[in-house]
Amino acid sequence: MHHLWCEALWRFMRAPKLTDQRERQVNVVQAILDYIEPIESIDELAVHYHGSAELCQRIALALYPTDSQLQDLRRTQDVAYALRYVELITGHELDPGDALPCWIGEWAVF
């Protein structure tokens, strides 16, 4: 897994869970996951990632057009790609809004 994805996933797993900012982040991560869900291979995921620098910004602005508090959008996008990577490898669908399985921490090693 790309080291930026690992770091983003590690931070996401350790971030406070009950904040408005976290809820917005989860919503953006889920929207990105929905967008990249048709990607079916690791290679395709990597190619898409390198060509999608503006994806998270577009999605965040569509969901929260007046929210200036959304920060570090690239890391938010990295979380979505990390989760999709784990889904592709394991075959398990992951929901960023629910408690992630305990074994997900094994993927967040960088």
Task: Explain what you see.
The protein is mainly α and 110 residues long. It has one domain (3-107). It has five helices and no strands.
Summarize the structure.
The protein has helices at residues 3-14, 20-36, 42-50, 55-63, 73-90. By secondary structure, the chain is mainly alpha-helical. It has one domain.
Give me the secondary-structure topology.
Elements: H1 3-14, H2 20-36, H3 42-50, H4 55-63, H5 73-90
Helix pairs in contact: 1-5, 2-4, 2-5, 4-5
Query: Uncertain runs with pLDDT below 50, 5 residues or more?
Result: none
Measure the end-to-end span: 9 Å
Number of domains: 1
Beta-strand residue fraction: under 5%
Measured as a percent range, the helix fraction is: 55-70%
Number of helices: 5
- How many strand segments? 0
Keywords, separated by commas or semicolons:
single chain, 110 residues, mainly alpha, globular
